[in-house]
């Protein structure tokens, strides 16, 4: 006798790790945060320059407000993939072999508008539906770097320079594919986020709500942590340090690559910042545009939260080295 499709069983319920745990450290975390806020207000704030504090607040709020809509979009898309898209769909769309699935996933990243905050939960949803991690990670890197919105913004920021748009597209896609292939060969330590399997209409909507609520709360906290770090770096690092190295070719490329990580600008807006750095070479600006959507502070925090710190410690340096190297080569050849 077959079971009706809309009958709920244990397979439709969220996994145990989604349930709140007794004796967890959450109250202690909030208590510690409250102590830090009070101490900062009483002893740290009076010693800060008002302009620096205003700048920190502006950068922090800008990062969070800029990223939050894309994060919500990514979480909703990830939850929809989890709840409504059967696993067999991805086995038909993507080749079975990781070596062939990686470039296909990179090409799919070109058609989804969104920033890096959206790509992390989407990549997690793809993995939960059976997509090989190497292909999902390729999509994670490619989607915020080569989607149509980013390319149009780059063309507007660099009028009369179609070579910069082409160089950004080619270099970013190449980095994503190389990172995916490298992870397919040597990758270890990735924690795939669990997802419940739902059957029937009511169960699927319940799974959608559960997945979206879990990912939004989880990723939102790491977004705040990344925003705090990026705002602090933006205020602490003197602007003169950056301008002083603009004339040294390789050092200028590394400087803008590190600056892209620290500033954590959304990929839809980073081209305008790069265009304003007139003292730097086109190759250095290309490195800024390639590195930023793939490696920044908020993205590192999101990756560590979704896939584990062990994964982030391996994948982030790999991506950074590939992005800088490819940017140097593509920039010297085409720019």
TrEMBL record:
Pfam families per the UniProt record, alphabetical: ArsP_1
InterPro entries: DUF318, UPF0718
Keywords: Cell membrane, Membrane, Transmembrane, Transmembrane helix
Membrane topology listed for this record: Multi-pass membrane protein
Record has Metal-binding as a keyword: no
GO CC annotation terms, alphabetical: plasma membrane
Transmembrane segments annotated in the record for this chain: 25-44, 56-81, 135-159, 165-186, 216-237, 243-265, 286-306, 312-334
Coiled-coil spans in chain: none
Highest taxon, organism lineage: Bacteria
Name of the protein described by the UniProt record: Putative two-component membrane permease complex subunit
Subcellular location as annotated: Cell membrane
Similarity section: Belongs to the UPF0718 family.
The keyword Protease is assigned to this record: no
């Amino acid at each position: 006798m077959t079971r009706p499709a809309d009958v709920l069983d244990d397979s439709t319920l969220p996994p145990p790790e989604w349930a709140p745990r007794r004796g967890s450290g959450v109250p202690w975390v909030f208590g510690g945060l409250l102590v830090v806020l009070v101490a900062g207000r009483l002893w740290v704030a009076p010693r800060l320059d008002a302009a620096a504090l205003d700048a920190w607040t502006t950068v922090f709020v800008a990062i969070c407000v800029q990223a939050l809509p894309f994060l919500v979009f990514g979480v909703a898309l990830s939850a929809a993939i989890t709840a409504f898209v059967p696993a067999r769909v991805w086995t038909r769309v993507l080749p079975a072999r990781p070596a062939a699935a990686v470039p296909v996933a990179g090409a799919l990243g070109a058609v989804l508008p969104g920033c890096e905050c959206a790509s992390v939960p989407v990549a997690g949803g793809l993995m939960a539906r059976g997509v090989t991690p190497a292909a999902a990670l390729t999509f994670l890197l490619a989607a915020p770097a080569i989607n149509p919105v980013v390319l149009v913004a780059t063309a507007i920021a660099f009028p009369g320079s179609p070579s910069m748009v082409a160089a950004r597209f080619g270099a970013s896609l190449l980095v994503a594919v190389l990172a995916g292939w490298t992870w397919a060969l040597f990758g270890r330590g990735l924690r795939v986020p669990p997802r419940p399997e739902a059957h029937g209409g009511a169960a699927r909507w319940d799974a959608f709500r559960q997945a979206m609520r879990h990912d939004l709360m989880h990723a939102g906290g790491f977004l705040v942590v990344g925003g705090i770090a990026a705002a602090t770096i933006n205020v602490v690092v003197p602007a003169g340090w950056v301008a002083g190295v603009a004339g040294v070719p390789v050092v200028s490329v590394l400087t803008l690559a590190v600056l892209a990580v620290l500033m954590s600008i959304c990929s839809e807006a980073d081209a305008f910042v790069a265009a304003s750095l007139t003292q730097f070479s086109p190759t250095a600006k290309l490195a800024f545009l390639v590195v930023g959507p793939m490696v920044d502070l908020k993205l590192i925090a999101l990756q560590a939260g979704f896939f584990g710190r062990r994964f982030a410690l391996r994948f982030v340096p790999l991506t950074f080295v590939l992005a800088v190297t490819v940017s140097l080569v593509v920039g010297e050849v085409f720019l």
